[in-house]
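EI: anyone free to look at a 534-residue chain?
SC: sure, send it
EI:
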Amino acid sequence: MTFTTNGRSSSVWMDDASELNYPPLPGDLDTDVCVIGAGIAGLTTAYLLMKEGKRVTVIDALGVGAGESGRTTAHFFPPDEWYAGIEEKFGARQSRLVADSYGRAIRLVEEIVAREAIECGFERLDGYLFNLPGGKEKDLAAEVQAAVRAGVQAGLGDRVPGLPFDTGPCVRYHAQAQFHPVQYLVGLAGCLARNGAGIYARTPALQVEQTDHGQRISTPHGRILAGVVVVATNTPFNNRVVMHTKQAGYRSYVIGALVPAGSVPRILLWDTGSPYHYIRLHSLWHRPSHELLLVGGADHKVGQDWHPEHCFAELEQWTRSRFPMALSVEYRWSGEVMEPADGLAFLGRNPLDSDSVYIITGDSGNGMTHTAIGAMIIRDMVMRRANPWIALYDPARKATHGLGEFAREQANTVSQYADWMKGGEVESAAEIPPGQGAIVRDGAAKLAVYRDDEGGLHAVSARCTHLGCQVHWNSVERSWDCPCHASRFATDGAVLHGPANTPLKAAQLPAIDDAAVRAAAGAASGIASGTLRK
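SC: here you go
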């Protein structure tokens, strides 16, 4: 089974679920609500608004679950900043609101799963936080106290129980959760379709604009006129700058190693490393004697590690040193998370827009939780209901907390534009091996050149269509990634992840270089076939 996705690596969720075949938009249509993005954020929001009696249409550039929702590890857990960090930055009252929203998000998904009889392995589990030796020590007692003040069931323990290594002191968070994200989406999409909602795949949104008759969404297959638009595309494409200076994109990596069933306790686990590790178990329906131990981490800025295969090796080494029962590594994949400057997601009305355009972004690794919170906030705003979390997660808020991190991220972004002053990564495309890509200078321009496994070359402009940064090669996903604002493109230039919504421009290799390439490709073919000898 081939699952539509935005990268070359494949998660266990993609292998574990049926392909979701939805057609492209058939032409122009009118709707009450147009949701852009068919991941967990989009479909959960669509579901809640459908339940309010709204006519809902969902479109996606690829398909249901084809974006970052199929690449998560799908835990519901405390905020990345932890409650001590939230309280320090925002105060005790806001920390209680965060805890309330997080708890309600888990309950919402639990209720939807039960109401719609979605078979997605949803289960409540305790989660544990521990200090990673040699890493940044966190005051775990202070974290417990802050969590309890926020209304969270939490306690301090001597060590995480049942593990083959001594974690030392830990924080226990009661009744967190996990599930199978793609099976959840299969259930949600089926429910939406049965109730008359339109779901259209292979339908990228090109533009959202205000008209006298509502919001008009342009696509390659027709225009949608909607009263309300929800942009649920992990990072919004419908504004040029305003949100993209307040968050940064990171790649995160996951391995899935077989372990004997019952050899690892069914818990959620996180450490305080930088980057930190996150761990959960996944049951294998076709192999009940074993489970899959999912270990994630090794995060880095998007486009700033050109050959990140070492991230998988580091995760495997870390895992085997702590879980000696780990057998073969069956899965390796990566995904993208958007880190907000102040640690809280951006959920609600899009800044600089009318009150009919909404966004869900800034997941900060808490995508399962924040998407549910965002769906509830947007439902209540559309229905003109009060919601105590609206101001807390307002996308228009100023980054008054975490200003140091904000400044560092902005400096990092600006520094990436210096790439245009450098030469190409190779002198000629002839140097690029099969399955790899590199930047080639062509006079004043730069080309992003990929050689496929058969030796064919594919050249596109190296200039990101968002704000003009030079893209970098990602050898794990075989994509061109922007190190400035985290857009990603396929080897043919097609957009895989925003904020860009225009493909990289097709380009031609210089004729003199093209001749050298053909000779190199012939030599490579001869070596592969065994016809050339020293």
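EI: The first helix runs from residue 12 to 16.
SC: 👍
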